[in-house]
Amino acid sequence: MEALDLLSKKLDLLLKKYAATESENKRLRETVAAQTRSLDDLGRKLSSLEKDMVSVHIGSTRENGEDNENMRRQLDSVIAEIDKILNTLND
User: Fold this and answer.
1) What integer best gives the mean pLDDT of the chain?
2) Any idea where the domains of the chain sit in the sequence?
């Protein structure tokens, strides 16, 4: 009978540990979900800030005449390359 009582106590202890582990697991899952949402939000904010930074950079280069001329040359060369590719495709 004493062995049965000992076994019962051990079972109760294991069940309590299981319940505590389940509770902690649930809490950790909620924490991970919240951090994932936060990370997604931060990623969207970063993307938006990068777009804004590019816009500001383009706006500031327009003010400088030399940079404007360099940008024009680069655009001309890109357009020339596109024209070459289109001509090749049409042949």
Assistant:
1) 85
2) 2-90
